[in-house]
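Handoff note, outgoing to incoming analyst
You'll be picking up this chain. Sequence as last confirmed:
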Amino acid sequence: MASHPENTEAASASGTTVNRIDRCFQHLRARGRKALMPFLTAGHPLAEATVPVMHGLVAGGADLIELGVPFSDPMADGPVIQKASELAIGRGVTLATVLDYVRRFRVDDPVTPVVLMGYLNPVEIMGRQRFVEQAAQSGVDGLLLVDAPLEESAPLQALCGEHGLHQILLAAPTTTGERRQRLADQARGFLYYVAYAGVTGGGALDVAEVATQVAHWQALGPTPVAVGFGVKDAASAQAIGRVADAVIVGSALIEHLAGCADADTAAVDARDFLRPLRAALDADIALEDRSGVPEKPAGNDGS
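Most recent structure output, in case you need it:
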């Protein structure tokens, strides 16, 4: 079950439905916490493990889940995620399968936001209208399509809006000038900031540079900024969590789960992988809370 039951109300005071992503970030900001968003390739490490692993990630402290749709010709995925996608495709995992995973996940978790990450080709094959309708019906909250840039996304954004979904937009270190402001203005749910140029799992994380870039994006608008690419462990998650609104971890999790022999083992391993990252993100909050408590006077312990 979801670890943040306070988030279960799905409608605002005005009666309009609030996207789970928005409600999640509202909930976290009110408590001074940062979002932890693991990326999982659907069908990895086993087709039957996907839904149990999603629940395991929530048990480990995930606030949102980014669920990757396996695709044969990715442009942003590094070798670890590429391999996971190839194996998932070999197991028969399709876009329709992924939507069914989300539908089954929603039986026990109506709260945790789910963002599908993938590419346009499978969407076009299914048909955009049908895909968005089925995604919404399945319980998807956001769509991140790597090869659907802002300049070509107006029809898809409108379609998503009609069905209560957010199209998540990508920003990169190379994004500059007027396009940067347009992205900030059009971003919904959260803005996915790619920490370095290249593919997932393939570069070194420059925290100082990420901090500078994230501050620029945050100054352009109110949409939360999530940082992906380069987060591998608790230390890197904490470093990014100090400057961003959300931390995304993908390749390290996928690699950790590789070789799990059954769904139960995979779910436990997913939970245990994420727990240190959650603890690291929350450690700074605990320190801030303690900093406001006066020190106990020496010798005043009742002895």
